[in-house]
Amino acid sequence: MNLARARNLIAFVFLVMTSLCAVLYFQQIGAFRPLDRFILDQLQAFNRSHYPKPAPPVVIVGLDESFLNAMPVPLSLSHFELADALQAISAGGARVIGMDLVLPEKRFDQIVRSDRDSDTFHKALLKGLLKASRQTPVVTGKVWDAEHNRFRPVQVDYLSILKQQRGHFSPYASALFCADSDGRVRAFPGADCQPDGTDSGLALEMLHAAGFKPLARPDGLINYQIGQPFRYIPMGEVLRHYQDNHLAWLRNTFEGKPVLIGSVLDNLDGHRAPLPIASWLGDRTLVPGVLVHGQILRSLMAGALIHPLGALWSFVLMCVGLLAWCGRSGWLKAWGFVLVVGVSLMLNVVLLQKNMWFAPAGLWVLGTCMAVARVAWDGMNDLAEKKRLRAAFGGYVSPPVLDEILSGRLHASQGGVHCEVCVLFSDIRGFTTLSEAMPAAEVVALLNHYFARMTRIVHKHQGTVDKFIGDGLMAFFGAPNSLPNAPANATACALEMLQALSEINAERESRGQFPLKIGIGLHAGAALVGHIGSPDRYEYTAIGDTINVASRVEGLCKDVGPSLLCTARVADSVASEYDLSSRGHWPLKGHSDMEIFEIKGPK
């Protein structure tokens, strides 16, 4: 295994372990819980809408506005009405009665109602509770008194009647819920959320009292996807049928069914549910607590509490997210992420129908982390590779060409392209004679120093150095990066090269050496620019008549005299910026006569 592969393997293992541990930690502390809850709610709504499942019947008897308006006494003194309702529901053959109501703490045995018999409030409720509980199991809710750190006590006479009932159930059970951080009730209110540490909740004790088989696991999430939103029967309607002795109606309504009695008033005992479960409230999720008890009871009776998959399955599914490291294609990763999200959602739709669920947010986050880590890793490797290539080939290829190669926009398979360029040729006058009197090492040093200065100037003006021909230099402007006015760049470059030559000569003369003279020729026109050569070695160069003409113009510097000459094509492009002088028409080898101009400098 080479060093690069070993480094990649170590990086992969490190990133995998770090990402996996980080995601598991954040999942453990609940960082992804809000997203998971939102997904769970939406999928339950989807299943209830598209794959509805019937729920065991649970009847809600509601204390509503019409009941309150018809009451001759305050709600806290509705002993007679509650006693009648209990007897009516029992007479109707209910399987169990649950009261999401708080029984009085005190005895009201000194108060009578003028519209009733001589029974006191206390005695009337005792009679009703006793008569009903002898025929039908009755379970009543209890609420927590935070001020005294205890459940609120019930008057001892009522409690003694409730405890006389037969069966293995607690007749006095907690009516508390466990709301999540967003205020919605999703979890079954088991022992972990009860102040006294027991799982004796109202719905669970109703299940036991009705004689249903006890659950092996009374825990999990409330199943809101079974059954349709509740309708309630008004308490006033139940009392009217009871007073009119409509036994058939009572039996048709209650026989064999669990019945919950509670408030359905908007401003009393409201709780947030994940889904709307009150038919009369439309899309509102703030619903009376009695309906939440009803949905819990539905879930218990159907054996349909939702249980999250075990830690092992969650770990295995989450590890799928590690596959996001594979592959370098960003589009492939994006589509892969969409596929994973879609599959995980569809899998949860199926699992929820089987009363199971796995939280997908951790999988999504882990996959995203691995994809981002891979993109970052590939990016760092690409930058390092480009830096290495730039260092290795920067001296062989002009920066514009190297930039195009590294960006992937320029490669050998493209061949050549026709484009407008301005070609510059320069040559040192009399260099052959000069070099014959110099040691070879000094000749090389001189040329390296000279070309280093000139090359920097070409690159400064966005030109491309094509090649060095002995003591000559060929460059072109306008490829591979196009320029608005390539002749203007070439002209500015040529003038700066002459200025640099003056500085080089000043240095040489200070050392007692002969000054150098150069000639520069410019011509603009069409050329074929690209990779030319064999499969074994390519060269990025320009070919065509434009290059030949530029070379001939540079050669005219010996005959015409000035150091910087150009053709009319160049002169027309830079006439507004530079001072030009025509040197007449001159014959060029392989060409008809052309007008040649001297570039003297900026205007």
From TrEMBL:
<keyword id="KW-0472">Membrane</keyword>
<keyword id="KW-0812">Transmembrane</keyword>
<dbReference type="InterPro" id="IPR001054">
    <property type="entry name" value="A/G_cyclase"/>
</dbReference>
<keyword id="KW-1133">Transmembrane helix</keyword>
<dbReference type="InterPro" id="IPR029787">
    <property type="entry name" value="Nucleotide_cyclase"/>
</dbReference>
<feature type="transmembrane region" description="Helical">
    <location>
        <begin position="357"/>
        <end position="377"/>
    </location>
</feature>
<dbReference type="InterPro" id="IPR050697">
    <property type="entry name" value="Adenylyl/Guanylyl_Cyclase_3/4"/>
</dbReference>
<protein>
    <submittedName>
        <fullName>Adenylate/guanylate cyclase domain-containing protein</fullName>
    </submittedName>
</protein>
<feature type="domain" description="Guanylate cyclase">
    <location>
        <begin position="422"/>
        <end position="554"/>
    </location>
</feature>
<dbReference type="Pfam" id="PF05226">
    <property type="entry name" value="CHASE2"/>
</dbReference>
<dbReference type="Pfam" id="PF00211">
    <property type="entry name" value="Guanylate_cyc"/>
</dbReference>
<feature type="transmembrane region" description="Helical">
    <location>
        <begin position="305"/>
        <end position="325"/>
    </location>
</feature>
<dbReference type="InterPro" id="IPR007890">
    <property type="entry name" value="CHASE2"/>
</dbReference>
<feature type="transmembrane region" description="Helical">
    <location>
        <begin position="332"/>
        <end position="351"/>
    </location>
</feature>
